[in-house]
Amino acid sequence: MTNLILDFRIALRSLFQHRRRTFFLVAAIAGVTGLLVLLNALSTGVSETMIRAATTLSSGHVNVGGFFKVTSSQSGPVVTEFAKVAKVVEANVPELEHWVHRGRGWAKIIADSGSTQAGVTGIDIKNEPDFKRVISVVSGRIDDLAERNTIMLFESQVERLKVKVGDAVTLSAQTNRGAANTVDCRVVAIAKDMGLMSKFGTFVPIETTRGLYQLRPDTTGVIQLYLKPQFVSESAAVAGRLRIALERAGYALMDSDASPFWMKFQTVNREDWTGQKLDVTTWEDEVSFLTWTLKVISVLKVVLLTILIAIVITGIMNTMWIAIRERTREIGTLRAIGMQRGGVLRMFLFESFQMGLLGTLAGALAGTAIALAVNAARIQVPLSVQLFLMSDRLHLSIHVSALTQAVVMITGITTLAALYPSYRAARLPPVSAMSHFG
Amino acid sequence: MTHIVSVQQVFKNYTLGTFVVPALRGVSLDVEEGEFLAIAGPSGSGKTTLLNLIGCVDTPTKGLVRIAGNATETMSERQLTRLRLHTIGFIFQSFNLVPVLSVFQNIELPLLLQRSATTKERRARVEALLDRVGIREYASHRPSELSGGQRQRVAIARALVTRPKLVLADEPTANLDSVTGTNILDLMKELNRTEKTTFIFSTHDARVWSYASSVVRLADGQIVDRVTAEEAVRAGGVPGQPSPRAT
Ligand SMILES: Nc1ncnc2c1ncn2[C@@H]1O[C@H](COP(=O)(O)OP(=O)(O)OP(=O)(O)O)[C@@H](O)[C@H]1O
Ligand SMILES: [Mg+2]
Asked: CA-to-CA distance for B31 and A419, rounded, in angstroms?
């Protein structure tokens, strides 16, 4: 114990002795740590924003959707007798907080002076408090979606269609049997854009989707499961379990495919079956076409950090070599008067460890401060970025676990970088005490 | 009478590339406890090499080195380090204090490495030695704030703090002016007398021979003779004069 304190003391004082050199290294370590913290905060922030938007606009944490095929080439995104399916869900997902069900469809939306193609989500607005909380309405009333044949559009669609609240639009689509059908809807609410998904998304009462596709009242498009917060990260496991439970209950299931439902029509239509098949997906599956941004950020993170950490490692090793050369006689002396090799090794590792800890703590602190400042500044991101963020603001998310991880990782790396030089220092012969250099 | 140091037919070769430099060529030497032995000889005669072997910081090419009854050739690096820590004190020509530690901490260091003494015991021992070598008021100073003579006093205190049986000093006065050097030798001599510590020091300065209980004269890696201080002074070195070439 006293020996550890001794090694620690010599290490700390030696660092202070060479404070200029130490300062630069610590600053470099702090810079890398700060950057890591910020990149983590960015990817976590984006991911959290995405989950929030995705899980209100187009997905639950876990979804039970599926297709019903009247003939082998005519499919609709339909779950028949959904109340029975919901029973299986409730019985097998203890992590469930609540579930909602929505109609799914794709239609041409026609107004007097324009038209657009868009997804049509049937929603029971009375049972969707979270949805109301996430959507920010710029005109009209979201609660009016409870009325028959109404529609909520996003700002960018309104621009194209040139409509306002109170105007009528016509939804035109093919029913699952192949017949053309239309429904007239009154615009009751216009919502602020929420990224890419709002470009192609509209919301109508669920009866309207049933009417448009001529479906029975016991059908829906998808059952969206919302899990208790602590289980959200386990969505995939829950989905896997639910899949088995549904199969046991006698349902036919589609093969697991990590893509949104609207990308599955082609495959489903090509397959040779009729009737009902269910499809269990997670929120990540449904927004997989967006999660590439997260992948880009993490690849960027890895590349950048690899380079920077390589620089830090080189810096640490160089500094250690210099220190060992400068202190050859000191090391020899310590060895001569009775310090074991382990003591010398520890001493130099401590030096690096102390620099690492100091640098990473400073970096973590600085990174956190910057992230908090960015959040406080409520920085508006450019439109193109909004599409992927599904938010108009940049949100950086700092978690204590991520901070700890960064501090531990980079301190560990800096300490390890000193391992070889320290090992060599420990093996310097005690006769080097007699060298007349330095 | 057991010998604290027993060197038998020791050879030491250094290799410089393909060259073999014979630094010691068959040296045998016994030192009794309590001696104050000088190893004298011109530059390159092998004084440092011999002290390094006695101090177990280097190993002979051939021959046996026995320190306080330990056959060093059979010992591991770890055991040799322990032997140095517990049995031998070192005083270096260039003091070799740890620059980042205070005078007190430098002296305390071997006790910390030994791990046996309590904080209180260490404190008492270090303070006693600070008084003994007369640098009490510099206890909290860094070595860089001290003069050469003061630094060598710190080094002496550090060498003695563990009450080693043997203290080795390689040209302890070479980096000091003659007055300071004389004072340092006075101090070492006094400690040799009062603490019964065996001292072996090397020098190429004949003026200091008179301090020694006996003088071993080296030349070209071999022992020329071993004489009492008076004999040595009479035979070759005149105090106050540069050392004679001993060949
Ligand atoms: N590490 C080494 N590598 C090669 N040769 C060495 C080494 N150390 C010493 N020598 C050689 O060994 C011989 C003895 O050297 P040593 O240092 O023991 O002499 P010394 O009596 O202490 O001399 P000085 O009075 O100059 O300190 C010299 O010829 C020297 O050049
Ligand atoms: Mg020498």
From this structure: 42
In a domain, B91, yes or no: yes
Partner-chain contact B115 A13, CB within 8 Å? no
Does A29 share its domain with A106?
Answer: no
Spatial neighbors of A182 by CB under 8 A, at least 6 apart, are A170, A171, A172, A173, A212
Q: Each residue's pLDDT tens digit in chain A (438 positions)?
A: 567 777 777 888 888 888 888 899 999 999 999 999 999 998 888 888 877 777 778 889 999 999 999 888 888 899 999 999 999 999 999 999 999 999 999 899 999 988 998 999 999 999 888 888 888 899 999 999 999 999 999 988 898 899 999 999 999 998 877 889 999 999 999 998 877 667 788 999 999 999 999 999 999 999 999 999 889 889 999 999 999 999 999 999 999 888 888 888 888 888 889 999 999 999 888 887 777 777 888 898 899 889 988 998 999 999 999 989 988 999 999 999 999 999 999 999 999 999 999 999 999 999 999 999 999 988 887 777 776 666 777 889 999 999 999 999 999 999 999 999 999 999 999 988 776 543
Question: Mind listing the pLDDT tens digit for each residue in A55-80?
Answer: 778 889 999 999 999 888 888 899 99
CB pairs under 8 A between A and B: 86
Give the position of tokens 């008021």. Answer: B137
Structure tokens at B103: 């005078």
How much is the pTM?
0.77
> What's the CATH number where B236 sits?
3.40.50.300
Same domain, A301 and A180: no
Q: How far is B83 from chain A (nearest CA, A)?
A: 8
Range of the domain at A321: 2-52+291-434
Same domain, A337 and A381: yes
Residue A297 and residue A369 in one domain: yes
Q: Which residues on chain B are in Cβ contact (under 8 Å) with A341? A: 77-78, 81
Same domain, A172 and A256: yes
Tell me: do A144 and A245 sit in the same domain: yes
- Give how many domains chain A has, as a whole number: 2
Classify residue A292 by burial, with Cβ atoms within 10 Å: 0-12, 13-18, 19+. Answer: exposed
A433 touches chain B (CB under 8 A): yes
Same domain, A278 and A320: no
**Cβ B165 vs Cβ B127: under 8 Å:** no
Q: Which residues contact A357 (CB under 8 A, 6 or more apart)?
A: A407, A411
Q: Which residue of A has its CA nearest to B97?
A: A330
Task: Judge: B92–A434 Cβ closer than 8 Å, yes or no.
Answer: yes
Report how far residue A82's alpha carbon sits from residue A64's, in angstroms, rounded to the nearest whole number. Answer: 10
Domain that holds residue B194: 3-95+168-246
In a domain, B186, yes or no: yes
Other beta carbons less than 10 A from residue B6's beta carbon: 18
User: What's the CA-to-centroid distance between B213 and ligand 2, angstroms?
Assistant: 21
